[in-house]
Specification:
This protein is an alpha+beta fold and about 130 residues long. It has three helices and six strands; from the N terminus they run ββααββββα. A hairpin with a 2-residue loop joins strand 1 and strand 2.
Length: about 130
């Protein structure tokens, strides 16, 4: 992700690692723009179409892995650069320990799932044609 930030030596554009809705929303907007191009028309408000694709090959149903996944994250101690050293954190992914759980089908953590390549574009176009 990149944005203009204030640093001790001035204000300038910089990049950093981030995720969540601030990343996924613009990515999905781009995918929907490609879906519009694929359909040769604006699909308009696609939420009903998207939810209609639940349990079809158009969506990848995100579910918990059989064993938790882990990653090591490296951060700057001072949040700016490595001059004050690095901090390492082990983070587990989808351990099902929070109040949100990924389950088959719709769930509050992953919704209906992720677009599944060309099947997603075909599914949206076909669903829109049958409105």
């Amino acid at each position: 992700m990149g944005q203009t930030q204030v640093f001790p030596d001035g204000t300038y554009w910089d990049q950093y690692r981030i995720g969540g809705t601030s990343l996924s929303s613009p990515l999905l907007a781009g995918v929907v723009a490609v879906a519009d191009q694929f359909a040769h028309r604006s699909l308009g408000f696609i939420n009903p179409l998207y939810y209609g694709l639940l349990r079809t090959p158009a969506l990848y149903d995100v579910t918990a892995p059989s064993q938790p996944l882990a990653e090591v994250r490296t951060d700057f101690v001072n949040g700016i650069d490595a001059s004050n050293g690095l901090r390492y954190r082990l983070r587990t992914i989808d351990v099902q320990s929070s109040t949100l759980h990924s389950t088959p089908g719709y769930d509050d953590e992953t919704g209906v799932g992720a677009p599944q390549g060309p099947s997603f574009f075909l599914g949206l176009a076909e669903a829109h044609a049958h409105r």
